[in-house]
Amino acid sequence: MSTSSPMQTSSPLKPEIATCADLSPPELQALAERLADQLRKDEETLSKGGIPSPLAMNMPRKGTAIDKQTRLAHLVAHSLWPPRNEAEEIWSLIKYGQLISTLSKVVKGGWRKAEAERLALKHAPRVHMDRGAFCTLKTRGVSRAVREPRAMPVALTDAAEFRPFFDFLKADQVPWSNTNPDPGARVEFPRGIFYSDGRMDLCKQVVGPGSIGPLMDCLRHNSHIRHFLLGNNVIGPAGARAISEFIAQNESVITWYLAGNCIDVNGVARLAAALAENDVVEALWLKRNPIGPVGARHVAEMLTTNVRLHTLDLDNCGLLDDGVVSLVAGFKANDTLRHLYLSANGITPAGAVALGEYFTDCSTKGKAGLESLYLSVNRIGDSGAAALAKGLRSNRGLKRLVVSSNQIEAAGAAALCDALTGHQTLEVLDLGVYTSTADMGELPNRIEDAGAAAVARLIRTNPKLVYVNVAHNGLTRGGWGEVVGAAIDSPSLVHLDAVERGLRKEPHQQRRLAEQLERNILGRYGISRAEFLRTELKFVRQPDNVRYIESLYRTRDFQNRGTRRGVKKFWDEGDETLKMVAMSA
């Protein structure tokens, strides 16, 4: 069940209970036994501290209309406690009533609590919750969406729909005559797009395990593809094997975007083995694949020998702290990785300590180390932020630090800002809120005015800082004013996100901020702020090579508000697609 879905308050057996008057006596007895069996399971669940199913909420009580007509309550009671005489018959009905009452109260209470938490999480990215709710929700465990990543729900595509694009790839031709086509030039097929910069885009087209083999066979004949975009295609173990075999022989594809493809621990082991001595691939994007802590070990081992890879995306891969600790061992032996994505992995202060030690190791050895660290939608909190800050205090190579939605409060924000004061390369600091925070069952930061003051000091002391995000952090006008005032005085800042829903901002300061950002953008990029927000902002927050994973298929869905709102996030119960994909090895 998704973290954003309300708890169910009706049982799948409710329709049968409602229509039980139409059943024959044998059918009615069979129903009573099934109901009794579920109630036994619910009683056991309750005894272990769990929340029982909602069945008790739908069960008839003794003497109700249904019971008078069918005696269903009597039949269930007798199935639970078979009476040997009249006295025991009465006693079984009393115990039945007590059990139904107890289970119903627990279900109602659990539902109310779950609903309150759901609503708090749902609104957390937009309306900052009170401190009590924030502290209560911090005690929640890591959600299933984080522990067990899944691709977005899709339906497999018929192989025939890919044939025109596959034939084009196999022919190894380009659709333009000049050798320097427009950078945005492309040719689009019913399923598949080829761009003039060498991108092959099949994102969300659902190649699946059945068509991945033919696709890789076609690419063996192609010399123009440099960037392989296959996001959310559920290729599974069969796909991981096919791609690994291709990588071992290929000398042209440098970018592999494989997000949401059901690549498990065995699949990533194959990919890691293929990349261990590879000197071609520069970027590997594995977001939303169930790699897990064990899979992280394979990636770490690969990093000890690979000297080409500079971008590694492991967002929402179920790594947890154990996986991060394993990865850090690989990072310490590597000096080429520059951009690392670790968002939505259930990382706590323990994982942050390991990352802090990595930065300390880089400083000790004089290594350049990471330029970008994306750590959003985790749970490092103040102690984790302090551990990270300890490692960053002597660092002089980091350009981007993104720690949005991490349960960081004022003390953690101050620790980070103090450690980064005077940093000569830091360009981006993001302490804001991440869009998928609620979906992942996580919480935003809450730095409040004290944390905002620390951010303001950082803006005033860092000569290269260009991007700062403190959105939805519980700021008042005082804290907001401090950050904005520092931004107004900054000669380098080109973007500040300090949105706080419900906060009335000072119009004069807003106007002065807009004017200063406009001046800084014009001086740095030679374009207007409106043009900057449309074309360049994403390349400030992210490294330049993200342009090679830009997908028209993903962009269209994102830009279409109706499509974006209607996107299906969770698989239907009983959908066999993932099971079939997993068996494709």
SSE diagram, text form:
Blueprint: H1 14-18, H2 25-47, H3 55-58, H4 65-70, H5 72-80, H6 86-123, H7 131-137, H8 144-147, H9 163-171, E1 186-188, E2 193-195, E3 199-201, H10 208-219, E4 227-229, H11 236-249, E5 255-257, H12 265-275, E6 283-285, H13 292-303, E7 311-313, H14 320-332, E8 339-341, H15 349-365, E9 372-374, H16 381-392, E10 400-402, H17 410-420, E11 428-430, H18 448-461, E12 467-469, H19 477-488, E13 495-497, H20 507-525, H21 529-535, H22 538-541, H23 552-559, H24 561-565, H25 577-582
Parallel strand pairs: 3-4, 4-5, 5-6, 6-7, 7-8, 8-9, 9-10, 10-11, 11-12, 12-13
Antiparallel strand pairs: 1-2, 2-3
Helix pairs in contact: 2-5, 2-6, 5-6, 9-10, 10-11, 11-12, 12-13, 13-14, 14-15, 15-16, 16-17, 17-18, 18-19, 19-20
Mean pLDDT: 90
**End-to-end gap:** 27 Å
Number of helices: 25
Order of strands, main sheet, comes to 1-2-3-4-5-6-7-8-9-10-11-12-13
Give a verbal description of the structure.
- With 585 residues, the protein is an alpha/beta fold.
- The protein has a domain at 14-123.
- The protein has helices at 14-18, 25-47, 55-58, 65-70, 72-80, 86-123, 131-137, 144-147, 163-171, 208-219, 236-249, 265-275, 292-303, 320-332, 349-365, 381-392, 410-420, 448-461, 477-488, 507-525, 529-535, 538-541, 552-559, 561-565, 577-582, and strands at 186-188, 193-195, 199-201, 227-229, 255-257, 283-285, 311-313, 339-341, 372-374, 400-402, 428-430, 467-469, 495-497.
- It has a 13-stranded mixed beta sheet, with no helix packed on it.
- Helix 11 (236-249) links the parallel strand 4 and strand 5 (255-257).
- The two termini are 27 Å apart.
